Amino acid sequence: LEGLTEPPEPGMTRTEVTYPLVELLLPELQEFLVYVWRRQLAAATGRVVQAADDEEMVDRRLAVGFADLVGFTRLTRRLEEEELGELVESFETTAADLVAAHGGRLIKTLGDEVLFAADDAGTAA
């Protein structure tokens, strides 16, 4: 921010210049930080699963679910790139929140698709 916050008028403090920029960028930064946190959590979970004993993984039964956005391909022809990005981000966020709220685990997101697991079929439904 330093390069963007050179005081435009003599006598202005750096804080007076920087604060409005921070207020402007904060919503975007919050969304980005949540996205980064989710990706890191997914990667860490993947590492734990890979490191688990084979015996532990063989004896475990899980329900696996898959969801995607109906009509997404058709939407890609009509929406602008920014709108598509917002739609996919909203879908991934909603899916992750719903899966977690119902006791499931999000395994992977890929555009308009999510793969998740739960301890039983009732939870996965």
UniProtKB/TrEMBL annotation:
<dbReference type="GO" id="GO:0009190">
    <property type="term" value="P:cyclic nucleotide biosynthetic process"/>
</dbReference>
<feature type="domain" description="Guanylate cyclase">
    <location>
        <begin position="63"/>
        <end position="125"/>
    </location>
</feature>
<dbReference type="GO" id="GO:0035556">
    <property type="term" value="P:intracellular signal transduction"/>
</dbReference>
<dbReference type="InterPro" id="IPR029787">
    <property type="entry name" value="Nucleotide_cyclase"/>
</dbReference>
<dbReference type="GO" id="GO:0004016">
    <property type="term" value="F:adenylate cyclase activity"/>
</dbReference>
<dbReference type="InterPro" id="IPR001054">
    <property type="entry name" value="A/G_cyclase"/>
</dbReference>
<protein>
    <submittedName>
        <fullName>Adenylate/guanylate cyclase domain-containing protein</fullName>
    </submittedName>
</protein>
